[in-house]
Amino acid sequence: MYSNYNGDVMTNETYDRFVERYESGQLPWADELPPPEVIDLVPTLPPGRALDLGCGYGRTAIYLAKHGWMADGIDFVEQAVDEAARRAAVAGVAEQTAFYAGSAATPKEDHAVYDLAVDIGCMHSFSDALLEEYRDSLKRVLKSGAIYLLFVHIRDESQEGRPHGIAKGHVETLFADGFTLDRVEHGSTQVEDRPPWESAWYWFKRN
Ligand SMILES: C[S@@+](CC[C@H](N)C(=O)[O-])C[C@H]1O[C@@H](n2cnc3c(N)ncnc32)[C@H](O)[C@@H]1O
Predict the structure, then answer these.
(1) Nearest C-alpha to atom 1 of ligand 1 is from which residue?
(2) Could you tell me how far CA 173 lies from the centroid of its own chain?
(3) Ligand 1: distance of its center to the CA of 29 in Å?
(4) Does the CA dihedral 5-9-13-16 come out positive or negative?
(5) Which terminus of the chain is more exposed, N or C, with fewer CB under 10 A?
(6) Ligand 1 cavity residues, CB under 6 Å
(7) What is residue 45's DSSP assignment?
(8) Distance from the CA of 28 to the center of ligand 1, in angstroms?
(9) CA of 74 to the centre of ligand 1 (A)
(10) Could you tell me the CATH number of the domain that includes residue 118?
(11) 76 vs 71: CA distance, rounded Å
(12) Residue 8's pLDDT is what?
C-alpha cells in the first residue's frame, strides 16, 4: 500500500513488484552513471530544470545536477527516493536536486517549469488510463520546446503470462498529442541471463 503526496492511496501489482525488487536488491538499473543516451544529450542542451520520472536511485537527476541542472526525481518507492537523496548528498549536489515519493503520472508541479524530462523504464508498466494521465501531466509541466527522453521495453505479444512493456506503436500514438517526435532508436535489451526484449529510445519535443 502506498500513499502519495496527495494522500491518495494506490495499491497495485506494479508497486508491490518494485518494492520487492528494492528489498531484494535486484536492481540492474542501480549503476552510478545514467545510460549513454542521457550522457550524450547533456552537452547538447543549456542547463535548466529537469524531471527524472521513476528516478530509482537518481542516477539521471544526479548526473544532470553535476552538469549544472536543477533536477527533481520522483519515484513511488520511498526507499528509492531516500537512497537517491543520500547519493545526491554524497555527490555534492543535494542543493541542486529534490527527490520525492509519488506517482510519476502526477508530478506535483502545476505548470510548465521543466526544460527536460527523462523516463528510463518507468511508464512502460502503466495501464492505458495511467498512461494518458501521465502524458497530460507531462504536457502540463514541460515548457514549450522542452525535451522528453524516454526508454521503454516493447511488449512481446507472443509472451505467455503477464505481458511486459508497452504495446508496439503506442508511444507514438500517445505523444502525437502535444509532442513532436524528433528521433527514435529501436534495439534490444538484455537483463541478467533472461532472453532479450525489444526496446526503444525516443527523443520528443514538447510543442
Ligand atoms: C526500471 S527502474 C529505473 C529507475 C531509473 N529510471 C534508472 O534509470 O535508474 C523503474 C523505476 O520506476 C519506478 N516506477 C514504476 N512505476 C512508477 C509509478 N507509477 N510512479 C512512480 N515511480 C514508478 C520504479 O519504482 C523504479 O524505480
Answers:
(1) 121
(2) 19
(3) 10
(4) positive
(5) N
(6) 14, 18, 29, 54-56, 59, 74-77, 80, 103-105, 120-122, 125
(7) S
(8) 12
(9) 8
(10) 3.40.50.150
(11) 17
(12) 39
Mutate to test the pocket of ligand 1, among 116, 122, 131 (most ligand atoms within 8 A of CB): 122
**pTM for the predicted model, two decimal places:** 0.93
Residue numbers of the domain that contains 65: 2-206
Indicate which atom in ligand 1 lies nearest the CA of residue 58: 9
pLDDT tens column, 76-101: 999 999 999 999 999 999 999 999 99
Residue 14: its pLDDT value, please? Answer: 87
**How many of the other CB atoms lie within 10 Å of CB of 163?**
12
DSSP letter string, 66-125: HTT-EEEEEES-HHHHHHHHHHHHHTT-TTTEEEEES-TTS-S--S--EEEEEEESSGGG
Neighbours of 158 (CB within 10 A): 6
Ligand 1 site-directed mutation target among 10, 75, 83, most atoms within 8 Å of CB = 75
Pairing of strands 197-206, 142-153: antiparallel
Count of structural domains, the chain: 1
